[in-house]
Amino acid sequence: MSPVPHYLPLLAISTNDWERLLAPISEESPCGRSLVYEGTYDEIREARRQDDPTLPQGDWQIELKKANWVQVRDLCVEALTKRTKDLQIAAWFTEALLWLHGYTGLKAGLQLIIHFCENYWETVYPLLEENGDVEMRISSLVWINEKLSLQLGNVAITAPATRDAFPYTFIDHEEAWLLENRASIKEKQAAEAAGKPTRAKFLTSATLTPREFCVNLATDLRESIEYVDTLNHLLDNLCSRQAPGLGKFRDTLVNIQRVVETMLKDKPSEVDSNAEIFEENTSTDTTISDDKLFIKNANLPIRSRGEAYRRLAEAADFLMQHEPHSPTPYLVKRAIKWGNMSLTELLMELVNNNSDLAAIYQLLGIKSDK
Asked: What are the C-alpha distances in Å from 321 to residues 55, 101, 286, 290, 328?
């Protein structure tokens, strides 16, 4: 039996449930029975269903239905531990874990699917056709490549350690860079006013994201890609020419990984003395004040641009706590935001009058809005 993942406690799944997910339903019927027509599929589909908030509702405003991913997970666990071994339900289980726990959850789902293919291929649901055709069997794996791949970009890949920046996803990153490279100045202004992600906002959020978060994220993505490669190789052996490729799914993970690796390049390893200082302080004085910790950390060398901006953010937060009426921390936070802006974005931020802005563009040789 596959080893219990060390990160299982993060997924709100007990060791007992995980072992039962892997174990056969019974000796006589390892994969149990099909649940396609007895209501379980319908229950899971309804729990997954969510209304598109971008669609017009007309005159009648109704409360939009949101997917209940906890319910999806629980329905899948109940079905897969007690009644069936089913690749489609395992795929929905993976989807729920992705939404609930990001790429850590994705790893667990992929491990389960690999286990089903390795250990229950002859009898796992959907069943093989009598002539050995695998089309029905691989439909759930095709769904992973075509549909679940579209959801991979919805996981937050930044986690700023301040309330002055928002977490952003890979989809936000792609939209922000598309806006930066293709949009006109007026379109950029409209996007900024509408609160849409911009390059400057994303970079600020990435700068303020702790290194540990990025390291864990990069590890989850790398291991997820390794599991996809394992599954691809396994399916090639099991299905031969009919093997469903997971290329789209893998390519999306690789693209996300590249963005995260770029973020990591500006986040050097923590200085060893940082840990030593903290240990010394906590062992000799358990009542050390925030002021002393701030001063100790301030004495550490700055090793990158990103770390410099994080220090500025820490300083601003410190001043807001100790001097809430001072304008200084607000100016520092504004400077952090400006630090990730292009010249065009900065001018848009500073100059509100369009005629003045046009004059500055003309002076600097910057093309204005078409």
From this structure: 43, 32, 21, 10, 12
What is the phi/psi pair of residue 86, to 5°? -135, 125
CA-CA distance, 285 to 278, in Å (whole number)? 10
Whole-model pTM: value is 0.76
Give how far the C-alpha of residue 80 lies from the chain's centroid of Cα atoms, to the nearest Å: 26
- Sign of torsion, CA 83 85 89 93? positive
Distance of alpha carbon 87 from alpha carbon 158, whole angstroms: 32
Q: Is residue 50 within 8 Å of 65, Cβ to Cβ?
A: yes
* CA pair distance 63, 226, nearest whole angstrom: 41
Over residues 159-213, the pLDDT tens digits come to 998 877 899 999 999 999 998 888 787 888 788 888 889 998 999 899 889 999 9
Distance separating alpha carbons of residues 361 and 367, to the nearest angstrom: 7
Token pair 């400006």 in the structure block, residue = 338
Cα–Cα nearest to 153, from 223, 73, 251, 246: 251
Beta bridge partners of 32: 84
Question: Would you list the domain boundaries of the chain?
Answer: 8-52+63-157+209-264, 287-364
Residue 295 in tokens: 């001063």
Q: Which of 68, 79, 70 is nearest to 46 (CA)?
A: 68
Residue written as tokens 């789209």? 248
